[in-house]
Specification:
This is NTP pyrophosphohydrolase. The chain has 137 residues and is α/β, with parallel strands linked by helices. Helices cover 41% and strands 18% of the residues.
């Protein structure tokens, strides 16, 4: 299984599109785009992130924190897990990367400190723009 962990706050915050006025809406839009990408083909998503994987071998974990973590009516997909961080998203992402370390893990974030933390577990990293270019719409 190839795991993609998405730092929701970092990805949403990477583009100044007014997300700060509606954090729950921004979380919904990101979850919707991830769900649409998984519906179109998990292997295509992996390929857009520079990895090779079969459709059945991709799982995406969207980590949300703060107001975004309170959203309950997010778009869903069988291969999309939404992680509601109990505190800060970085700690949840680092813990998840460590838990999944027996399989390939790729973390989507631009946060340098978080990148260093997850690389110590063996995870790879890419920036938000690589993911955003891969997502529909």
């Amino acid at each position: 299984m190839f795991h993609v962990i998405v730092d929701g706050a970092n990805v949403v915050g990477s583009r100044p599109d007014g997300w700060w006025r509606d954090r729950p809406g921004a979380a919904r839009r990101l979850a919707g785009k991830l769900s649409a990408a998984l519906t179109a083909g998990p292997a295509l998503l992996a390929q857009g992130l520079g990895r090779e994987a079969a459709d059945e071998d991709v799982r995406v974990h969207l980590v949300l924190e703060g107001a975004a973590a309170q959203v309950e009516d997010l778009p869903t997909h069988p291969l999309l897990d939404v992680v509601h961080a109990p505190a800060d998203g970085d700690s949840a992402i680092a813990a998840l990367a460590a838990d999944l370390a027996v399989e390939p893990v790729l973390v989507v974030t631009a946060d340098r400190g978080l990148r260093a933390r997850v690389r110590s577990t063996g995870a790879g990293t890419v920036g938000p723009e690589m993911l955003l270019r891969t997502l529909p719409g």
